[in-house]
Amino acid sequence: MMENNKLQHYALTDVAQLKVHGRTTESRSPLTLFWTGSAVELNVTGTELWIEVDSKYDVYEPWISVLINDVVVSRQMLVHGRYWVCIFRGMNESVTKNVRIVKDTQAMSGDPGCALQINALKSDGAFQLVEDRPYKVEFIGDSITSGEGAIGAQAEEDWIPMWFSAIQNYTAMTAEALHADYRVISQSGWGVMTSWDNNPNANIPQYYDQVCGLLTGEMNEALGAHNPQDFNAWQPDVVVVNLGSNDGGAFQTPEWIDPNTGVTYKQRLNADGTYHEEDVAKFEQAAYQFLIQLRKNNTKAHIVWAYGMLGFPMMPAIYRAVDTYMKETGDRNVSVIQLPNTTSETVGARTHPGMLSHKRAAETLTEHLKGILHHS
Amino acid sequence: MMENNKLQHYALTDVAQLKVHGRTTESRSPLTLFWTGSAVELNVTGTELWIEVDSKYDVYEPWISVLINDVVVSRQMLVHGRYWVCIFRGMNESVTKNVRIVKDTQAMSGDPGCALQINALKSDGAFQLVEDRPYKVEFIGDSITSGEGAIGAQAEEDWIPMWFSAIQNYTAMTAEALHADYRVISQSGWGVMTSWDNNPNANIPQYYDQVCGLLTGEMNEALGAHNPQDFNAWQPDVVVVNLGSNDGGAFQTPEWIDPNTGVTYKQRLNADGTYHEEDVAKFEQAAYQFLIQLRKNNTKAHIVWAYGMLGFPMMPAIYRAVDTYMKETGDRNVSVIQLPNTTSETVGARTHPGMLSHKRAAETLTEHLKGILHHS
Amino acid sequence: MMENNKLQHYALTDVAQLKVHGRTTESRSPLTLFWTGSAVELNVTGTELWIEVDSKYDVYEPWISVLINDVVVSRQMLVHGRYWVCIFRGMNESVTKNVRIVKDTQAMSGDPGCALQINALKSDGAFQLVEDRPYKVEFIGDSITSGEGAIGAQAEEDWIPMWFSAIQNYTAMTAEALHADYRVISQSGWGVMTSWDNNPNANIPQYYDQVCGLLTGEMNEALGAHNPQDFNAWQPDVVVVNLGSNDGGAFQTPEWIDPNTGVTYKQRLNADGTYHEEDVAKFEQAAYQFLIQLRKNNTKAHIVWAYGMLGFPMMPAIYRAVDTYMKETGDRNVSVIQLPNTTSETVGARTHPGMLSHKRAAETLTEHLKGILHHS
Amino acid sequence: MMENNKLQHYALTDVAQLKVHGRTTESRSPLTLFWTGSAVELNVTGTELWIEVDSKYDVYEPWISVLINDVVVSRQMLVHGRYWVCIFRGMNESVTKNVRIVKDTQAMSGDPGCALQINALKSDGAFQLVEDRPYKVEFIGDSITSGEGAIGAQAEEDWIPMWFSAIQNYTAMTAEALHADYRVISQSGWGVMTSWDNNPNANIPQYYDQVCGLLTGEMNEALGAHNPQDFNAWQPDVVVVNLGSNDGGAFQTPEWIDPNTGVTYKQRLNADGTYHEEDVAKFEQAAYQFLIQLRKNNTKAHIVWAYGMLGFPMMPAIYRAVDTYMKETGDRNVSVIQLPNTTSETVGARTHPGMLSHKRAAETLTEHLKGILHHS
User: Fold this and answer.
1) Most exposed residue of A187, B57, B372, C334, measured as fewest CB within 10 angstroms of its CB?
2) Residues of A numbered 162-221 whose beta carbons fall under 8 angstroms of chain C's beta carbons: which are they?
């Protein structure tokens, strides 16, 4: 191989032009990409670019996608270790390339050993400023928003990182259509109040105020995952909440018993298959409280509860929670929208929304948000 | 990371069930994947699979795509060296996975140092037979068939492996639609008679009878690239010839001067912009001879000349060549079909056919071939 | 012209096999088609078929579409008068043709002189039974459901029958996808409580219990438009209510003054542009009452409130109304679904949903109803 | 009905702004629309427009489509007789409407009694100039170009006018995409040399120099159908020849015996199913002669032979004929293009191309013609 002797080594702190997407700490040596859709973005000249990654995990390995000039050219598993990944080589040195390296897999609450870090860059080019896009959008959700099943054959049933995609995902598609920078806060199986299996600890609001509070283990704590999130540093124009699917699921699944306390948790069904009124009320209360919490931290954002990609049994309760919130607070900058349900034609792996379902959801959501952003 | 202690190491020669796609030599230790679309295919149980690759090049690095159960889950550059690539991990050990690892980049006649080899496998599963598909198709072509520009932004202009795709390619799409095993013989810039720039050495027929004769350098010779192709071992049902675009281009480009002999080569235009009759006749003669050569080596195949994805100025000459061939030989098992021209909506990188153009070509070609295969 | 001497004249009462779609009276001599989507359907052999229509109007002429074997072959204005319309001629006499003649225009509350009647048939064939489809669906709505603007250029602004279509309409598309017989009750500009311009008399519930009670004038009364509807004769499996768009519009338009009483009606906006709470409550009450009324008359039907094709500002109120209804009655056989909003790409004439918007709405609604019908 | 007392009666000769599409004679009192796609076009203000038609036939009735501002609003059979057809009513009188009334059915060589004439107009508006479109295109073809089967269910088998469409037709679609005025010369079953059943009199070239020479009977002769065509009055930029499908069919069908002379005609197959060389040569000669004839009459037009919508077995012969023509005449303004073959998904009634097949053909042809028109 012809060696490229012109490559220069850069610590991330050397590259002021580096743009980081997604919630993280102040640290850049190294930079931790916690959430799905988190990314580094560069405008760079030169013939060649490498990044040094550090991929750690006990169970669930991280994956990344690489976009050159907005086109995905590579998607790969990052096996354990610290090593260099070549992003491009052999290109015209005088032309500026826009490069995004995107984390394709969610923060893994189930794997305390999992972390993806970026240490350094190598290139023979020069770095240039990446402009902010006109809007900022934050997406909050569950497996749907994590892109679980958005890639892979319909027959796939394993719960593994390979079937997660941040790209074939309504979040990325909506952000692109809106010309928006965006962030994602999401966890498969979690809800506003409980997980799909009635675990009351598996809810997003509880950790929303931290950088990535749902991560566990000493390593992640040391990386700052539990630090308070600095909301002032990035105030979104829109917050999309796509939660409720697992809260709905909890009505259909067995009780969850807290292994520490022995206390039992269960969202109950009535004999006729409808939801028990008291338990739905608890969900509504949780949703209401989450809206309060979101508004506290995102003062100017339009908050839209976008729900329905895997059915919409919680929609009445969501509407009631939003009604109550708006009436009690006088806050009018909130809306609810139903996203297109997934069908046999649009389903992906693991009976989750496939790429086509994400595409339709993005179209619906984009249209809704355009109306709001262009009037505000 | 939790180590997987059950992984077993396999030389390729240990795995009788391994299916190899694409022309290559008998060697399996290692196996060389010469052409784009060449692949190894496995049916395998177990939780985890790795392959050991050996990627060599002076200039143009190989890329691969990985398909699990017919869905592309990964595409990556293979940087220089011999190392293990993890194909999957964490899967249900008792379920059989169909895995294809496909070479995404063409044989590189311009880089004598370029070779992609597969040395070994590691898995904790068992290998199972991969059935032959009902049909066999061979595709012969130029940059179109090599998938140049089938991936990447329209603005891309660099001639680099990153913009080549064996997957977003009418070859793979047609083979999938026909349920066919397939092979590809292709080279960017080359023709039936000359390259796009009048080089008479850059033609496919000259090397067709060798395994991968257009490769240069001692290494490739040692790997058996110049060995005679064993046609008996794989007799296609269909041979698709997608050549002529560069032969047409040669009329529009400057003369080529042989650096060794000083002899000049040029397909001439008349003053009115039409093709010089003598030079078109040379092309026709080359096309005629190639048909003779194809039939000699592929006795039962339907041969279809499929042309037109980047315009179709050579179509009259192709029809004349095929006419002459059919008349002189009495061989009726030949046809000509025009593929859909690439438009501003379907163009990809480097002003070559994009994914949409490949898709339309595949639809047209598939329909044509279904008619032929179902009647033969 | 060669005369067809074999044509026989049939009063509709002679043709027991005639299937009538849409609410109407018992009369068949003549038969009145009141609503859009109302139709006569025939299975008939023979070479030729004519129907005798009687088209009356002061202002708004009726239009019909003709479907042969489920394909629209003709659409035409019916100018004033009683005359024969040829449906087909020259066909193979021994083959059975399925024929539907569909009223393309809504009941015209603004034109007391408007009526479309069918008097008789002529054919040289024999009539055969038309089987009922497996499901029955009733659609209740406004201009959207009347197909206003579903045909015609986007530039069209005239309020004329030509721009109404019962065929390029989510009602027909949904019914076809579900293999359902269907009926439509709809009126442009009307709502659950008031019209778009605050007229409290222009609401569907007020007339729902009559055959076609919103028609005015002595002629229509004599035709039985004000007769009580015989609900027992046709009990739907699904009732789709697509109302609310005009009730929402009433908040944005000037007050309506009753010309007889001088009383003023107005759904009020608050200073901040939100809906006045008391007035929204009135709408909710009207929606609630309509659900009571619908259930009284349609005992077994799933009732779905399907709303959103021209925005969805009333959705919270609709959800509240349905919540209250379900809670107070214990009736669980009700749902709410948001239909895809109309976009610049899917808009039709008169800034109403175009064919593409109707198509998307039908896909969403069909998917929802399949889930319900296959579980009930 | 409220009478419109402002309607004024106009002979066609009174309306200088009337634009006539399609070959016809000089007569405007009445105007005869001979060919499919022939039309009258008007720009008109006013609330209302009527045309007086005179529809004559022994067997095959004419159909028309009405377009308002480029959208089809009506399609109807014209039963026998002379009567007024209302085109629109109730429109805004001050707005200009573009109106086209298009003959949907071909000239009927099999029905000497068939003629469609337009006698007069009635309107309360004013007529305005219709600008010529930037290009002129002439289409010459057979049943494909006549739109046979482009409307109707796939099960339809009757040969009747109802299944013909000038609108769901690649001719209209291509013309619209190119912004071209256009004419159609076409006849179901006919070819360059013979009909599908070997009748040597059923060929287009024989009648090409007359206005509509293939019509028979005294009436049509009196209407000027056999008059020489005045080519100077309308010189196209492009002539599209879509012939060959029936010439190909003649090889597969029984001989035709001239009832007058007893002479037998048959395009022969060889024992191996290939075409007899002498008979193909006759076809080539006929195609060659037709090109000579077309060029004589259309001096500046690009002539494109566009073939393949129902298979393309004659393509080699067409290429040979065009080759010979170009070589012998030096005329370079000629091309050949293969149109997309009809598939099980795009087929229409009577196993002819359906709307989707016409759409694809139009896309291919439009792309080809844009390249030519923008370079000439």
Assistant:
1) B372
2) none
Q: How far is C197 from C251, CA to CA, in rounded Å?
A: 9
Question: Is C322 touching A (CB cutoff 8 A)?
Answer: yes
| D316-to-B72, B169, B335 alpha-carbon distances in Å | 40, 28, 9
Angle (CA) C91-C96-C101 rounded to 5° is 80
Query: At how many degrees (to 10) do helices C355-373 and C170-178 cross?
Result: 40
Could you check whether C8-128 and C135-373 share the same CATH topology?
no
C75/chain A closest Cα distance in angstroms: 33
Separation in Å, CA of C160 to nearest CA in chain D: 6
CA angle B282, B287, B292 (to 5 degrees): 125
| Chain D nearest-CA residue for C162 | D73
Contacts of D274 in chain B (CB under 8 A): 332
Please state, in angstroms and as integers, the Cα–Cα distance from residue C336 to each residue in B314, B339, C294, C306, following that order: 61, 48, 15, 6
A138 closest CA partner among A191, A87, A174 = A174
Q: Which two tokens stand for residue C354?
A: 């175009």
Length of chain D as a residue count:
376
List Cβ<8 Å contacts ≥24 apart for B292-298: B292/B325, B292/B329, B293/B205, B293/B208, B293/B209, B294/B208, B294/B239, B294/B241, B295/B329, B295/B331, B297/B208, B297/B209, B297/B229, B297/B231, B298/B138, B298/B231, B298/B235, B298/B236, B298/B239
Domain range C8-128, CATH class: mainly beta
Domain ranges of chain A: 8-128, 135-373
Exposure of C149 in the CB half-sphere (CA atoms within 13 A): 26
* pLDDT tens string D110-168: 999 999 999 999 999 999 999 999 999 999 999 999 999 999 999 999 999 999 999 99
DSSP code at position B231: G
Topology of domain D135-373, CATH: Rossmann fold (3.40.50)
Contacts of B97 (CB under 8 A, 6+ apart): B43, B44, B45, B49, B68, B69, B88, B91
A180 and A136 Cβ atoms separated by less than 8 Å: yes
D361 in contact with B, Cβ within 8 Å? no
D129 touches chain C (CB under 8 A): no
User: Residue D237: pLDDT above 90?
Assistant: yes
The enclosing H or E element of C140 equals strand C135-141
User: Taking CB atoms and an 8 Å limit, are B332 and D368 in contact across chains?
Assistant: no
Q: Please give, rounded to a whole number of angstroms, the shortest distance from the CA of B316 to a CA of chain D.
A: 6
Residues D170-200: pLDDT tens digits?
A: 999 999 999 999 999 999 999 999 999 999 9
Mean pLDDT of A198-210: 98
CA atoms within 13 A on the CB side of C320: 18
Identify the DSSP state of A162: G
In this prediction the ipTM stands at 0.97
Helix (H, G, I), strand (E, B) or coil at D359: helix
Q: What is the DSSP letter of C23?
A: S
Report the neighbours of B using a cutoff of 3 or more CB pairs below 8 angstroms: A, D
Residue D23 predicted with pLDDT over 70: yes
Contact between B195 and B258 (Cβ < 8 Å): no
